[in-house]
């Protein structure tokens, strides 16, 4: 299993590097986030031993249980964050990709000020690019107001935007949504003067399209860890 995982990780890394090179970008500029959702700590640890430097988890409690059994890595929360899980999230994650409302930003700001007064947390704003009722994320038209609010939270470092487009079998179907997120990022930078260098977009089936459209972080699970049980 460990050798197979290492081979899959290396194969994905080669694909990331090729996708970056094909559009004139530096491969080193793309962070590959290995998403170990539902896999046990020992499997995730094997990925770290094989070279994974960034890990993604969807659920706070799963990450809390898993992290003690995993060697050093940078942990990213890529699933929704509930207010009552905010403190636990701060104990585990280095980056939160899913700030989508004032309430969550304010809670993190409060907890950091009270319990980690010297710490700054990197965050991304999650945007519901297709305005899907069942999905988390701020609607694009509300992104400016959300950004202004989070910029007012001095313990939060807003690094960019994140999105999960509608699922389609054809990876090309994701391209317009990736373009929309990039264009929104560009507009927000122009309006606020605040740099937003990170675009977290693209998963196992469409990350190469995402890289072509400007992704700086891709979140890959199945292609690295294999099918989930």
Mean model confidence by pLDDT: 96
What's the β-strand tally?
A: 8
> How many distinct folded domains?
1
Main beta sheet? 8 strands, parallel
- Name of the top-level CATH class: Alpha Beta
CATH third-tier fold name: TIM Barrel
Q: What's the CATH H-level homologous superfamily?
A: Alanine racemase
Span between termini? 15 Å
Number of helices: 9
Gyration radius from CA atoms, angstroms: 17 Å
Q: Strand content of the residues, in percent?
A: 15-25%
The run of helices and strands is: HEHEHEHEHEHEHEHEH
Describe the structure.
The protein is of the alpha/beta class. It has one domain (2-225): Alpha-Beta Barrel (TIM Barrel). The protein is 41% helix and 17% strand. The chain has helices at residues 2-22, 41-49, 60-66, 86-92, 102-115, 143-151, 175-192, 207-212, 222-225; strands spanning 31-35, 54-57, 74-77, 95-99, 121-126, 156-162, 198-200, 217-220. Strands 7-6-5-4-3-2-1-8 form an eight-stranded parallel sheet. The mean pLDDT is 96.
Explain briefly what this protein structure is.
With 229 residues, this protein is of the alpha/beta class. It has nine helices and eight strands.
Question: Descriptors for this entry?
Answer:
single chain, TIM Barrel, 8-stranded parallel sheet, 9 helices
